[in-house]
């Protein structure tokens, strides 16, 4: 098994699941990574997608059948010749320094190059649509709450 970077079909599935998560009342439990990212956008506090996905080797490590450490179950035992404790920061700096798509990405503070691993040339257009939906939803929720509070204050006057 190789590391999977989302293709168009998988991004479409992500968007479908996100739509269900955001708009269906029967969803009673958080769906990750949507929940943590939505909270992050709402509170304007970046969150590490590497940590949300439990793939930051500084926090969680996976041991392969042959006893090697790797960064994720889905990496298929990918061997890394890297300092695992600083892997996420170092990789993020690499994609910034190489002036790849991440260089001026509005979502880098949350993604940190997560979708660029291991193929740094991966195009994140679909993922950016998902992240834009989450960011827009967070703003809509804020606006709705402000209107609700304003209506409550007017009612009490």
Structure at a glance:
This protein has 157 residues and is an all-alpha fold. It has helices at residues 8-23, 34-43, 49-52, 87-97, 108-111, 125-156; strands at residues 62-63, 69-70.
Features:
elongated; 49% helix; 157 residues; two-stranded antiparallel ribbon; 6 helices
Question: What report would you give on this structure?
Answer:
The protein has a two-stranded antiparallel sheet with strand order 1-2. The radius of gyration is 18 Å and the shape is elongated. It has 6 helices and 2 strands. Helix 2 packs across helix 6 (125-156). 49% of the residues lie in helices and 3% in strands. By secondary structure, the protein is mainly α. The mean pLDDT is 88. It has helices spanning 8-23, 34-43, 49-52, 87-97, 108-111, 125-156; strands at residues 62-63, 69-70. It has one domain (8-148).
Helices and strands in order:
Elements lengths: L7 H16 L10 H10 L5 H4 L9 E2 L5 E2 L16 H11 L10 H4 L13 H32 L1
Antiparallel strand pairs: 1-2
Helix pairs in contact: 1-6, 2-6
The share of residues in helices is 40-55%
Spans where pLDDT lies below 50 across 5 or more residues:
none
Task: List the total number of helices.
Answer: 6
**SSE-based structural type:** mainly alpha
- Share of β-strand residues: under 5%
Biggest sheet descriptor: 2 strands, antiparallel
H and E string: HHHEEHHH
Q: What average pLDDT do the residues reach?
A: 88
Trace the largest sheet across and list its strands: 1-2
How would the global form be characterised?
A: elongated
How big is the Rg?
A: 18 Å
How many distinct domains? 1
Total beta strands:
2
Query: Ends: how far apart?
Result: 64 Å
């Amino acid at each position: 098994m190789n590391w999977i970077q989302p293709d168009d079909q998988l991004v479409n599935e992500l968007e479908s699941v996100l739509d269900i998560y955001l708009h269906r009342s029967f969803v009673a439990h958080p769906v990750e990574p949507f929940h943590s990212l939505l909270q992050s956008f709402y509170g304007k506090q970046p969150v590490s997608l590497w940590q949300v996905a439990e793939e930051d080797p500084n926090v969680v490590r996976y041991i392969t059948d042959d006893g090697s450490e790797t960064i994720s179950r889905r990496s298929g035992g990918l061997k890394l010749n890297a300092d695992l404790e600083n892997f996420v920061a170092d990789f993020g700096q690499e994609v910034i320094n190489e002036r790849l798509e991440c260089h001026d990405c509005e979502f880098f503070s949350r993604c940190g190059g997560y979708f660029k691993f291991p193929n740094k040339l991966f195009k994140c257009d679909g993922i950016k649509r998902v992240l834009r939906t989450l960011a827009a939803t967070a703003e809509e929720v804020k606006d709705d709450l402000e209107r609700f509070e304003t209506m409550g204050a007017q009612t009490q006057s």
